[in-house]
Write a structure and sequence with these properties.
By secondary structure, the chain is of the alpha/beta class. It has a single domain, classed as D-Maltodextrin-Binding Protein, domain 2, CATH 3.40.190. Helix content is about 45%, strand content about 20%. Strands 7-6-8-5-9-11 form a six-stranded mixed beta sheet. Helix 2 packs antiparallel against helix 11.
């Protein structure tokens, strides 16, 4: 009898991975390919969850836009056909316009300031706001500071931007930024290598890691270190699904995602110097010191446009601008 009891306990642990925790598989969507920033955070999260749940919880990553673009992944998270996602901040603004405040141009001076604000009360209030759209906001991993590339000419200041057809995310905020800078912003889902190669568009704007992972030197010539937007990834879960989980499981998943995000942010930043060196070696003509003040002046009036007409969004923007300016 004792032997049978021991075997039964071992079988239970084998099925659940840990006493008292039922087996679970989580679907997690990202739009980028393995090796990309989203995927690094996703893989680290998968690893930590497996360790901390003793194998009870499995994370299945759907990458390379295999289940849709970022807007489509968010829609599936709302419906709980996908449980989690690591998504660029831009596409969220069609679900909750309060996210537009994060992508305000030339907002953060450096990574440390971005971390302090997004990991602090303002960032947490933005995550909490996502619940009104059916998302459980967990934390921020990182895309990074965005830079401009194009195939037509060097861009040193605002006059050089005029008329460039630039791919942007499906984001009212990002489209408005590039309209203000004088470009012709063209929303397209990622990836856009073929469109760049065929000159359907002149350029795109993204962090350095993406230019390396997608070998953009093959289809682009000019790189401007514009740092025009600090772009986080927002790591979210389906709110409907999240509410079905017990408190210990919620805590395990939330902590694992925060730890994965911090791991990924540091790794992303540590690699930028080498990425820039490689991009130059591959033939990019790099403008390292563009006229940032001139670019900033072109977008200075965005805070008073219709994209911030919602009183709640406007109040959050003012709060954020005060925080970055130390008021």
């Amino acid at each position: 009898m004792k032997r049978l009891l021991i075997m039964a306990v071992l079988l239970l642990v084998g099925l659940t991975g840990a006493p008292g925790r039922a087996a679970m598989t989580i679907k997690l969507g990202v739009v980028t390919k393995p090796g990309s920033a989203q995927n690094i955070a996703a893989e680290k999260f998968k690893e930590l969850v497996a360790q901390r749940s003793q194998g009870a919880i499995t994370v299945k990553i759907y990458d390379s836009a295999s289940i849709g673009n970022e807007t489509e992944i968010l829609q599936q998270i709302q419906m709980n056909t996908v449980q989690m996602g690591i998504i660029t901040s831009g596409p969220f603004d069609t679900f909750d316009p309060i996210v537009r405040v994060i992508d305000y141009p030339f907002l953060f001076k450096d990574n440390e300031q971005a971390d302090a604000i997004l990991d602090g009360p303002i960032g947490q209030d933005i995550l909490a706001s996502l619940e009104t759209s059916g998302f459980k906001g967990l934390c921020y991993s990182e895309n990074g500071f965005r830079h401009l590339t194009n195939s037509r000419r060097p861009v040193k200041g605002p006059d050089d931007v005029k008329g460039l057809k630039i791919r942007v995310m499906a984001s009212v905020m990002h489209k408005t930024i590039w309209q203000a800078l004088g470009a012709n912003p063209t929303p397209m889902p990622w990836p856009v290598y073929t469109e760049l190669e065929q000159r359907v568009i002149d350029g795109q704007e993204n962090p350095l890691w993406l230019m390396v992972e997608y070998k953009l030197w093959e289809v682009q010539k000019y790189l401007t270190l514009s740092r025009h937007v600090y772009s986080p990834h927002i790591d979210v879960a389906s709110l409907a699904w999240w509410r079905t989980l017990d408190a210990p499981t919620q805590q395990l998943l939330a902590t694992a995602m925060r730890d994965a995000a911090r791991f990924q942010r540091q790794q992303n930043r540590d690699g930028d110097a080498e990425r820039l060196r490689l991009l130059k070696e591959k033939g990019f003509v790099v403008e390292e010191h563009p006229d940032i003040d001139g670019l900033r002046r072109k977008v200075a009036g965005l805070r008073d446009t219709d994209i911030y007409r919602d009183a709640r969004v406007k109040a959050m923007l003012i709060r954020l601008l005060d925080a970055v300016q130390g008021r």
